[in-house]
Amino acid sequence: MKYISLRTSIPLLTIAPLVLAVGLTGGLAFYNARQTIDQLSSELSQEIAAQVAQKTESFLTVPRQINQLNYDGFQNGKINLNNLGLLERYFWHQIQVFNTVSYIYLGTSTGEFRGAEQVDGGFQIGVVGASTNSLFLTYSATSTGDRNQLVDQGDRYDPRIRPWYTATVAAQRPIWSEVYTDFNSRQLAITATHPVKNAQGELVGVFAVDVFLNRLDDFLKSLKIAETGQVFIIERDGFLIGSSGSDPTAIPEGEEMQRVSVVESQNPILQATANYLVTRFGDLSLVQNQDHQSFRFEGNQYFVRAQPFRDQGGLDWLIVVVIPEADFLAQVNAQTQMTLLFGLAALVLAAGVGFVLSNWLVRPVMRLNDAALSITTRRFDDQSLEDLVQRSDEVGEFAQAFRDMAVVVGDRTQSLSEQLEELQDDPPLPPLTSESSLGSEEQVTERQDSYKTLRERAQTLRQQAQVHHRQDSTPTP
Question: Which residue windows are transmembrane per the record (predicted)?
């Protein structure tokens, strides 16, 4: 079995546990960081979606509240459909209070139309009816809300055939119109309507409020979603309502404005997110509960949350938040790098300590090893271990015992060597001759015993010399 040198094993025993500890710590830190990323992305996307839903609800509540106020005013007699001039001033005052809407108006069952709108920071009054020969006339307003100068004379206009009016008549309840592109401003708009019925339950008109969705789009663009996250609102058919990016919600095609579907968006992230949702749910209309998932696109991981938005007027939209994993990994990578740097610094320090400790521990052992080798070559100097013998620790005790043993072994070896030399110097026994055989029987026996004794002694000395030589040749561990 091959053993590792102490010069190598001691530093390894010092560094190996630290390497294992740093590796385990780094692995656990990275695992916990990934779990934290999932949790943070879920919490952030949920917070953003809730914030957008709250803002959207607040924004779209105003038109419905205005319609309800106007309907209540009609019910209690404050609004008289037979005094449309007073209604014009009422709408003019109202739109200055509710400055998030763009148009407040009424269409009657007799074809009359009265309304007030915001235009470039000012206010105008719209009039259609028998007095205008059904032409759509737009006036600037005085400081009291009366008609001032004619600003525009439009084509003939009958509110009773407009989509917002016919849809309300069919529903017989407050509703939202379909999202459409306003012809003049070329912005997305939506209309909240409320049917007006007399005491007999007959429909005599429809209150309506227009809002431009660019205000909602501006709000989305003001949101800070991690570093590069995005949020967008879409209808169930995929058409964009607004987004936090620079993506247009409608593009011109000739004289018309064509709405943009998210699956055809020029924004690759929005398009990839929509395609993922369609693939996962089969159809955007099937997303019923808020859902936090992740998907890969172009080698990057994205977290996505799709949350339905509904209101009492029948709106059914989707709020979608998408956040790249890289927005969170930047911090995780920085922490991982710091962990690795501290780990490498600790390893370098441990390596230095290990080598210093190794030299401090191994040096006396190597000196004792050299001393043991010198014994086999009969060049041992008992003064070579004097400094080690002076130590008061275990090394000193071991050096003292080793030196004493070395002296004893040296003395014994020297004694054996001298005895062998004496034996080799003894004259050989004379051979027996015919003349010697003439001696007495006692002399012959005495000579044989003496020769036998000398031979046994020589054999014993050789065996002892061989044993001591083997022991002395064995290196001290």
Answer: 340-362
